[in-house]
UniProtKB/TrEMBL annotation:
Name this polypeptide is given: Pentapeptide repeat-containing protein
Record InterPro entries: 5peptide_repeat, Pentapeptide-BTB/POZ_domain
Coiled-coil segments on the chain, per record: none
Transmembrane segment boundaries: none
Species per Swiss-Prot/TrEMBL record: Komarekiella delphini-convector SJRDD-AB1
Length: 129
């Protein structure tokens, strides 16, 4: 039974990086709150519904990642590469997005951004449902 839910057992940075190195990209529902993922390359991964609350993703490569419905509140996304990422209904309320590359990333009106953050100014595309 544990094999069918293997992506739900992702709860440490080490496990995540091992699975990524094995070629796995489905980390939906991963529980990575407070994980230190500074500077890691996770491009093309599925982190939909994942808990990345307070995760350190400073300088991480998250190009093309699916972060829909992910909890990224209070995450450190400074200088992270989120180009082409899916941010539908993601919670980025208190995330640090300083220097983050967000061109061609998609979000919707349910995506929560930090106060005074202007999605259009950084090249985010707001899709209407």
């Amino acid at each position: 039974m544990s094999e069918t839910n293997s992506q739900q057992n992702i709860n440490t940075a080490v496990t995540l990086l091992e699975r990524y190195a094995e070629g796995k990209r489905n980390f939906s529902e991963a529980n990575l709150g407070n994980a230190d993922l500074q500077g890691v390359d996770l491009k093309g991964s599925d982190f939909s519904y994942a808990d990345l609350n307070e995760a350190n993703l400073n300088g991480a490569n998250l190009r093309g990642c699916d972060l829909s419905f992910a909890n990224l509140s209070q995450a450190n996304l400074q200088d992270a590469d989120l180009r082409g990422a899916l941010l539908f209904s993601a919670d980025l309320r208190q995330a640090d997005l300083k220097g983050a590359k967000l061109e061609k990333a998609d979000c919707d009106r349910s995506t929560h951004f930090p106060q005074d953050f202007d999605p259009a100014q950084v090249g985010l595309q707001i899709k209407d449902g």
